[in-house]
Amino acid sequence: MTTWRGRAGVLRAIKEPFSIEEVHLLPLDPHRVAVKTHASPFCSTDVKNWKGKLYKIPPTILGHASIGEVVEVGSAVSGIRVGQRVVVPGTPECGVCYYCGIGEPWQCGELFDLGGIYPDIASGDDGARISCAGCVGGYAEYMSISGNQVFPVESDLDSDVLSMLGCGISTGVGSVFNVAQVQPGESVAIVGAGHLGLWMLQAARLAGAGSVTVVEPHAERLALAGSLGADVLVDPGSTPEEAAEALAAVRAATGGRGADVVLEAAGPAVSQSFAVQASRRGGRTVLTGFEIGGATLPLPQVETALQSRRILSSQNGQVHMKSDLQRYTGLLERGLLDAAPILTRRYPIEELDLARDRSGSLDDVCGVIVFDH
Ligand SMILES: [Zn+2]
Ligand SMILES: [Zn+2]
């Protein structure tokens, strides 16, 4: 049995710099595959993980989406071969749990029944056992992944672009196509223009949205949304009065009613409450963000209980990776989804702290950690 050994950016302690160190994968469980990592997006969620806001337990390797080449296949895994390029999304599809059985693999028990306790997959030179946060651990040269969480992809596109399939693209595009099911001509508002919101914007235009309004306080990101085809740009400001003005602006852009569909990609509870109020009576709001574990969401009662607004949730964009992944890849290949404005920088693993800082300060829309391949 081969020992897979390589560099990793290990979260040894909350809010401490990542430890860039050599680790080796533990002997491969029969149900797992070893993957040599090509690229992993640095998602803004990992800024929160680094700050300890989402219950991740050190020592662990963050990075909840990735792509790479299969280098070893456990004896109990079928359908995966050494040498295949595979997307590793943040969510497995085991096919046999209750949720996979009822056709809702985005809640697959193989991940969510773990209760946030992830398996140890590697060991440091000091003997420390290191887990893979979210069952991926993409900020490492080698990953040990469940055979149910690797999806072969056929494409000539670079791995750095395709690495985003399992994070921003699945959640953003899936929110539009699968969750909201935006119909041609519907008005769409997007709250937040980070990587997720910008994928939503592109998907909403693909779906034939009648108008797209983007609400975003960061001036550069708002301008980027404009260059990607948003019809109306709204700065929500920072005070309750400015937020009320922004809400009025969204309604003014949507016949005075509010949008048919509001897609929230910001995180703070105040943004989610705003999103619901920006939808029309009976409209759909898709919530994707979260700020900190344990947070609650206050909603106005009349608008939600009396006025028929529907609130939907979008874990992993409700995608079926086996059927949706290759279609989304096709959209990237044809240029109907454009990664260029979203993938702002590439980093070697040694610059993981820099990638985190630039994600946190909004200097990057989405940085990608790349490995030699
Ligand atoms: Zn499952
Ligand atoms: Zn993510």
Give a brief rundown of this model.
The protein is α/β, with parallel strands linked by helices.
Mind explaining what this structure looks like?
- By secondary structure, this protein is an alpha/beta fold.
- The chain has 2 domains: 5-152 and 342-370, Medium-chain alcohol dehydrogenases, catalytic domain (Quinone Oxidoreductase, Chain A, domain 1, Alpha-Beta Complex); 172-314, NAD(P)-binding Rossmann-like Domain (Rossmann fold), CATH 3.40.50.
- It contains 12 helices and 18 strands.
- Helix 6 (195-206) links the parallel strand 11 and strand 12.
- The chain starts with a strand and ends with a strand.
- The model has no long low-confidence stretch (mean pLDDT 96).
- One zinc ion is lined by residues 94, 97, 99-100, 105, 108-110.
